[in-house]
Amino acid sequence: KNRVNILGTEFDNFTEKQFHKYLDDDLDVNANKFIVTPNPEIVLSARKDTNFSEIVNNADYVIPDGIGIIKGAKNLGTPLHERITGFDTLQYLVDTANRKLLKVYLLGSKPEVIQASAEKIKKDYPQIDLVGYHDGYFKDESDIVAEIAEKQPNIVFVALGSPKQEIFINKYRDKANAIWIGVGGSFDVFSG
Ligand code: UDP
Protein backbone atom coordinates (compact mmCIF):
# COMPACT_ATOMS: atom_id res chain seq x y z
CA LYS A 1 0.00 0.00 0.00
CA ASN A 2 1.17 3.49 -0.86
CA ARG A 3 1.00 5.24 2.50
CA VAL A 4 2.71 8.33 3.88
CA ASN A 5 3.57 8.49 7.59
CA ILE A 6 2.83 11.85 9.22
CA LEU A 7 3.86 11.78 12.89
CA GLY A 8 2.73 8.17 13.22
CA THR A 9 -0.48 8.27 11.19
CA GLU A 10 -0.25 6.43 7.86
CA PHE A 11 -2.15 8.31 5.17
CA ASP A 12 -3.20 6.87 1.83
CA ASN A 13 -1.64 8.76 -1.03
CA PHE A 14 -4.16 8.93 -3.85
CA THR A 15 -6.27 11.53 -5.59
CA GLU A 16 -9.89 12.05 -4.62
CA LYS A 17 -10.88 10.67 -8.03
CA GLN A 18 -8.95 7.43 -7.44
CA PHE A 19 -10.43 7.17 -3.96
CA HIS A 20 -13.95 7.49 -5.35
CA LYS A 21 -13.21 4.72 -7.86
CA TYR A 22 -12.09 2.43 -5.02
CA LEU A 23 -15.31 3.19 -3.14
CA ASP A 24 -17.42 2.45 -6.22
CA ASP A 25 -15.68 -0.90 -6.60
CA ASP A 26 -16.08 -1.68 -2.89
CA LEU A 27 -19.80 -0.96 -3.04
CA ASP A 28 -20.21 -3.12 -6.13
CA VAL A 29 -18.76 -6.16 -4.33
CA ASN A 30 -20.28 -5.37 -0.93
CA ALA A 31 -16.86 -5.06 0.69
CA ASN A 32 -16.40 -4.34 4.38
CA LYS A 33 -14.32 -1.15 4.62
CA PHE A 34 -13.46 1.38 7.30
CA ILE A 35 -12.61 4.98 6.40
CA VAL A 36 -10.93 7.40 8.82
CA THR A 37 -10.40 11.05 7.98
CA PRO A 38 -7.74 12.40 10.34
CA ASN A 39 -7.13 16.13 10.69
CA PRO A 40 -4.05 17.47 12.54
CA GLU A 41 -5.87 17.26 15.88
CA ILE A 42 -6.50 13.54 15.38
CA VAL A 43 -2.89 12.93 14.34
CA LEU A 44 -1.73 14.54 17.57
CA SER A 45 -4.16 12.61 19.75
CA ALA A 46 -3.18 9.34 18.04
CA ARG A 47 0.44 10.11 18.94
CA LYS A 48 -0.49 10.08 22.60
CA ASP A 49 -2.79 7.07 22.47
CA THR A 50 -1.32 3.89 20.99
CA ASN A 51 -4.65 2.08 21.11
CA PHE A 52 -6.32 4.80 19.04
CA SER A 53 -3.29 4.99 16.75
CA GLU A 54 -3.58 1.27 15.99
CA ILE A 55 -7.27 1.61 15.20
CA VAL A 56 -6.57 4.49 12.80
CA ASN A 57 -3.66 2.78 11.07
CA ASN A 58 -5.57 -0.47 10.67
CA ALA A 59 -8.43 1.27 8.84
CA ASP A 60 -8.75 0.48 5.14
CA TYR A 61 -8.63 4.10 4.08
CA VAL A 62 -6.85 6.89 5.96
CA ILE A 63 -7.49 10.15 4.15
CA PRO A 64 -6.02 13.61 4.81
CA ASP A 65 -8.82 15.85 6.07
CA GLY A 66 -7.19 19.23 6.42
CA ILE A 67 -4.73 21.50 4.73
CA GLY A 68 -2.43 21.14 7.77
CA ILE A 69 -1.85 17.49 6.85
CA ILE A 70 -1.03 18.39 3.24
CA LYS A 71 1.42 21.09 4.37
CA GLY A 72 3.00 18.77 6.95
CA ALA A 73 3.48 16.03 4.34
CA LYS A 74 5.15 18.50 1.98
CA ASN A 75 7.46 19.81 4.71
CA LEU A 76 8.48 16.25 5.61
CA GLY A 77 9.46 15.64 1.97
CA THR A 78 6.69 13.07 1.42
CA PRO A 79 3.94 15.04 -0.31
CA LEU A 80 0.39 13.75 -0.54
CA HIS A 81 -1.65 14.23 -3.73
CA GLU A 82 -4.45 16.30 -2.26
CA ARG A 83 -6.74 17.01 0.64
CA ILE A 84 -9.84 14.80 0.82
CA THR A 85 -12.36 15.84 3.45
CA GLY A 86 -14.73 13.71 5.47
CA PHE A 87 -17.58 15.99 4.50
CA ASP A 88 -16.90 15.65 0.76
CA THR A 89 -16.64 11.89 1.20
CA LEU A 90 -19.99 11.82 2.98
CA GLN A 91 -21.48 13.84 0.12
CA TYR A 92 -19.96 11.50 -2.48
CA LEU A 93 -21.24 8.41 -0.68
CA VAL A 94 -24.74 9.90 -0.36
CA ASP A 95 -24.80 10.72 -4.09
CA THR A 96 -23.49 7.25 -4.91
CA ALA A 97 -26.00 5.55 -2.63
CA ASN A 98 -28.78 7.39 -4.42
CA ARG A 99 -27.40 6.43 -7.83
CA LYS A 100 -26.89 2.77 -6.89
CA LEU A 101 -30.10 2.43 -4.79
CA LEU A 102 -28.20 1.46 -1.64
CA LYS A 103 -29.12 0.92 2.00
CA VAL A 104 -27.81 3.54 4.42
CA TYR A 105 -27.71 3.88 8.22
CA LEU A 106 -26.99 7.16 10.04
CA LEU A 107 -25.59 7.22 13.58
CA GLY A 108 -24.60 10.14 15.75
CA SER A 109 -25.02 13.90 16.28
CA LYS A 110 -27.77 15.57 18.28
CA PRO A 111 -31.32 14.21 17.89
CA GLU A 112 -32.55 17.24 15.89
CA VAL A 113 -29.49 17.14 13.63
CA ILE A 114 -29.78 13.46 12.73
CA GLN A 115 -33.55 13.82 12.28
CA ALA A 116 -33.01 16.73 9.87
CA SER A 117 -30.31 14.75 8.04
CA ALA A 118 -32.67 11.78 7.67
CA GLU A 119 -35.40 14.08 6.33
CA LYS A 120 -33.00 15.64 3.86
CA ILE A 121 -32.04 12.21 2.57
CA LYS A 122 -35.68 11.15 2.18
CA LYS A 123 -36.50 14.36 0.31
CA ASP A 124 -33.41 14.96 -1.84
CA TYR A 125 -32.12 11.41 -2.33
CA PRO A 126 -35.31 9.39 -2.82
CA GLN A 127 -33.55 6.32 -4.22
CA ILE A 128 -31.64 5.75 -1.00
CA ASP A 129 -33.11 3.07 1.23
CA LEU A 130 -32.62 4.73 4.62
CA VAL A 131 -32.81 1.67 6.86
CA GLY A 132 -32.40 3.52 10.14
CA TYR A 133 -30.89 6.36 12.09
CA HIS A 134 -30.10 7.20 15.69
CA ASP A 135 -28.62 10.18 17.52
CA GLY A 136 -25.25 9.93 19.21
CA TYR A 137 -26.35 10.35 22.81
CA PHE A 138 -27.24 6.79 23.79
CA LYS A 139 -26.37 4.95 27.00
CA ASP A 140 -26.44 1.47 25.58
CA GLU A 141 -25.51 0.76 21.98
CA SER A 142 -26.76 -2.84 21.83
CA ASP A 143 -30.11 -1.97 20.17
CA ILE A 144 -28.34 0.19 17.60
CA VAL A 145 -25.84 -2.53 16.80
CA ALA A 146 -28.63 -5.12 16.56
CA GLU A 147 -30.52 -2.89 14.13
CA ILE A 148 -27.47 -2.44 11.92
CA ALA A 149 -26.85 -6.19 11.98
CA GLU A 150 -30.46 -6.87 11.03
CA LYS A 151 -30.79 -4.26 8.27
CA GLN A 152 -27.38 -4.88 6.67
CA PRO A 153 -26.83 -1.38 5.28
CA ASN A 154 -24.27 -0.84 2.50
CA ILE A 155 -23.01 2.35 4.13
CA VAL A 156 -22.89 3.30 7.84
CA PHE A 157 -22.12 6.92 8.72
CA VAL A 158 -20.92 7.34 12.31
CA ALA A 159 -20.84 10.88 13.73
CA LEU A 160 -19.74 10.55 17.36
CA GLY A 161 -16.58 12.67 17.17
CA SER A 162 -13.07 11.24 17.54
CA PRO A 163 -11.98 8.89 18.99
CA LYS A 164 -15.48 7.62 19.89
CA GLN A 165 -16.58 7.01 16.31
CA GLU A 166 -13.42 5.13 15.34
CA ILE A 167 -13.61 2.97 18.48
CA PHE A 168 -17.26 2.21 17.69
CA ILE A 169 -16.56 1.27 14.08
CA ASN A 170 -13.55 -0.84 14.97
CA LYS A 171 -15.65 -2.76 17.47
CA TYR A 172 -18.74 -3.34 15.34
CA ARG A 173 -17.71 -3.25 11.68
CA ASP A 174 -18.05 -7.03 11.38
CA LYS A 175 -21.81 -6.70 11.96
CA ALA A 176 -22.47 -5.53 8.39
CA ASN A 177 -20.60 -5.74 5.11
CA ALA A 178 -20.67 -2.00 4.67
CA ILE A 179 -18.48 0.98 4.10
CA TRP A 180 -18.15 2.41 7.61
CA ILE A 181 -16.98 5.99 7.95
CA GLY A 182 -16.47 8.31 10.92
CA VAL A 183 -17.79 11.69 9.82
CA GLY A 184 -17.35 13.86 12.94
CA GLY A 185 -19.52 16.97 12.79
CA SER A 186 -20.50 16.51 9.12
CA PHE A 187 -24.22 16.03 9.79
CA ASP A 188 -24.29 19.41 11.50
CA VAL A 189 -23.35 20.84 8.07
CA PHE A 190 -25.26 18.35 5.90
CA SER A 191 -28.54 18.92 7.75
CA GLY A 192 -28.37 22.73 7.50
N1 UDP B 1 -21.38 13.58 19.24
C1 UDP B 1 -22.28 12.55 19.50
N2 UDP B 1 -22.18 11.88 20.66
C2 UDP B 1 -21.24 12.16 21.60
C3 UDP B 1 -20.30 13.18 21.31
C4 UDP B 1 -20.40 13.87 20.13
O1 UDP B 1 -23.14 12.27 18.69
O2 UDP B 1 -21.22 11.49 22.63
C5 UDP B 1 -21.49 14.29 17.97
C6 UDP B 1 -21.70 15.77 18.06
O3 UDP B 1 -23.07 16.07 18.19
C7 UDP B 1 -21.16 16.25 16.71
C8 UDP B 1 -20.18 15.16 16.32
O4 UDP B 1 -20.27 14.15 17.30
O5 UDP B 1 -22.17 16.25 15.74
C9 UDP B 1 -18.74 15.54 16.18
O6 UDP B 1 -18.36 16.54 17.04
P1 UDP B 1 -17.04 17.37 16.83
O7 UDP B 1 -17.29 18.47 15.88
O8 UDP B 1 -16.53 17.68 18.20
O9 UDP B 1 -16.06 16.30 16.19
P2 UDP B 1 -15.02 16.41 15.00
O10 UDP B 1 -15.77 16.69 13.73
O11 UDP B 1 -14.08 17.52 15.37
O12 UDP B 1 -14.39 15.06 15.03
Automatic annotation (TrEMBL):
<keyword id="KW-0777">Teichoic acid biosynthesis</keyword>
<comment type="function">
    <text>Catalyzes the conversion of GlcNAc-PP-undecaprenol into ManNAc-GlcNAc-PP-undecaprenol, the first committed lipid intermediate in the de novo synthesis of teichoic acid.</text>
</comment>
<dbReference type="GO" id="GO:0019350">
    <property type="term" value="P:teichoic acid biosynthetic process"/>
</dbReference>
<protein>
    <recommendedName>
        <fullName>N-acetylglucosaminyldiphosphoundecaprenol N-acetyl-beta-D-mannosaminyltransferase</fullName>
        <ecNumber>2.4.1.187</ecNumber>
    </recommendedName>
</protein>
<keyword id="KW-0808">Transferase</keyword>
<comment type="pathway">
    <text>Cell wall biogenesis; teichoic acid biosynthesis.</text>
</comment>
<dbReference type="GO" id="GO:0071555">
    <property type="term" value="P:cell wall organization"/>
</dbReference>
<comment type="similarity">
    <text>Belongs to the glycosyltransferase 26 family. TagA/TarA subfamily.</text>
</comment>
<keyword id="KW-0961">Cell wall biogenesis/degradation</keyword>
<keyword id="KW-0328">Glycosyltransferase</keyword>
<dbReference type="GO" id="GO:0047244">
    <property type="term" value="F:N-acetylglucosaminyldiphosphoundecaprenol N-acetyl-beta-D-mannosaminyltransferase activity"/>
</dbReference>
